[in-house]
Inverse folding.
């Protein structure tokens, strides 16, 4: 029996001990596992009470709920069984021992249930990626985006585009192969180009949005001169002592990074070294890293101590807000007019927490604008590359025009259809499957 035809099993719920543990079985011998441990096969897709026993000793293992999903109407497209047992370690150990002793059975590898679903046509590759993102989602915005992808937002559209491209290709090839036939319309190529133009436009428009960044998080850099309260601000927003705070300038040397959920959006908050002239080579490296963090950020919070002299905001590409810290202390009369290139200002006290809620709300509103409220299709670089390849191929066909070489036009349309096939996993994806499935957990 090959590895693909083995019957696999795994714990699909959380680590024991737990109130309930879910054990999944998938493969050609799944029916045999139920017959061996339960003595019967339950009605399909109905939870049934059963007593699980060791088939050799007939000793009771546990009382459980059992579900049976015959192929092809199962998650993997194979015969599947699900055992809901009590989540004790000893129960699971005994059950796994029994399953392992059955002929053709082995423990599942990482992501193997989902991979079998993909191989059996139950999920396309974009839905597999959406499922992986759904499992790993940390924020509400990530959950919504992943669920849309898992439900086929991109995959269904890509398959529609692929079908339309095949129809266009059929018109071009008919024009090539049957041009001398009397019953073949003479305007086939024009009809083909009438389809190529809208396809190129739709595929180009689908590449917008910030779906890739939503998976990674909005990057917010906290920057400013030394001793203005940057690390205190990071700790206040993170609600823990993530950064060392001291009255001595130059305490922060490296970029300190904290992942947060702010207003439902994933945010990577980065505390940076204080910007000042220094001869210390270690601090100079910290300043270089701070400058890179500002350059890579989507939003810069330039923290200012209003009790001291103003420090000008350095030039940077990201949106920049001035954060007037230490609102609990008397100000020295500095005003926002002293800084240029600033989009807005906020007044806070990182020490007392005053104004922090307003700052967090403002960052959340910025995240909503940055990621856009409309659903996006492209959530991975792989998606963007495939769509870009399809768009470039169609643009090349359009440049050739209806009067161009039909064979070259057909090849460009064929390249676009191939890119759509790779997007959904229909063709040419073996080299990326391991990369995608390695991030899954065992039992999924």
């Amino acid at each position: 029996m090959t590895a693909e035809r083995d019957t696999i099993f795994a714990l699909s719920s959380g680590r024991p001990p737990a109130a309930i543990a879910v054990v999944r079985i998938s493969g050609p011998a799944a029916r045999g596992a139920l017959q061996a441990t339960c003595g019967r096969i339950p009605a399909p897709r109905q939870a049934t009470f059963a007593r699980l026993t060791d088939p050799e000793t007939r000793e009771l293992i546990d009382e459980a709920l059992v579900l049976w999903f015959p192929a092809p109407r199962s998650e993997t497209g194979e015969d599947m069984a699900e055992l809901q047992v009590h989540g004790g370690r000893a129960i699971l150990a005994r059950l796994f021992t029994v399953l392992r002793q059955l002929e053709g059975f082995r423990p599942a590898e990482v992501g193997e249930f989902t991979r079998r679903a993909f191989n059996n046509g139950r999920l396309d590759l974009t839905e597999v990626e959406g499922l992986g993102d759904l499992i790993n989602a940390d924020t509400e915005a990530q959950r919504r985006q992943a669920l849309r992808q898992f439900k086929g937002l991109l995959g269904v559209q890509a398959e529609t585009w692929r079908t339309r491209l095949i129809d266009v290709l059929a018109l071009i090839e008919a024009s090539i192969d049957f041009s001398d036939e009397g019953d073949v319309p003479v305007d086939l190529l024009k009809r083909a180009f009438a389809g190529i133009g809208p396809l190129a436009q739709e595929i180009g428009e689908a590449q917008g949005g910030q779906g890739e960044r939503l998976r990674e998080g909005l990057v917010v850099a906290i920057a400013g001169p030394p001793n203005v309260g940057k690390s205190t601000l990071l700790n206040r927003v993170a609600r823990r002592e993530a950064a060392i705070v001291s009255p001595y300038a130059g305490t922060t040397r490296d970029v300190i990074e904290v992942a947060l959920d702010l207003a439902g959006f994933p945010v990577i908050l980065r505390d940076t070294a204080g910007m000042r002239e220094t001869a210390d080579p270690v601090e100079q490296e910290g300043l270089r890293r701070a400058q890179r963090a500002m350059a890579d950020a989507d939003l810069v919070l330039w923290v200012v101590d209003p009790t001291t002299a103003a420090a000008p905001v350095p030039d940077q590409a990201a949106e920049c807000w001035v954060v007037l810290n230490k609102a609990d202390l008397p100000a020295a009369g500095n005003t926002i007019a002293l800084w240029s290139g600033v989009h807005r200002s906020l007044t806070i006290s990182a020490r007392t927490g005053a104004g922090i809620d307003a700052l967090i709300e403002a960052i959340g509103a910025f995240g909503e604008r940055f990621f856009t409220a409309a659903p996006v299709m492209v959530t991975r670089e792989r998606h963007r590359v495939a769509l870009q390849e399809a768009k470039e191929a169609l643009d090349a066909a359009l440049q050739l025009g209806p009067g161009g070489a039909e064979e070259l036009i057909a090849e460009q349309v064929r390249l676009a259809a191939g890119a759509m096939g790779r997007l959904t996993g229909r063709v040419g994806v073996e080299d990326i499957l391991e990369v995608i499935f390695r991030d899954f957990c065992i039992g999924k």
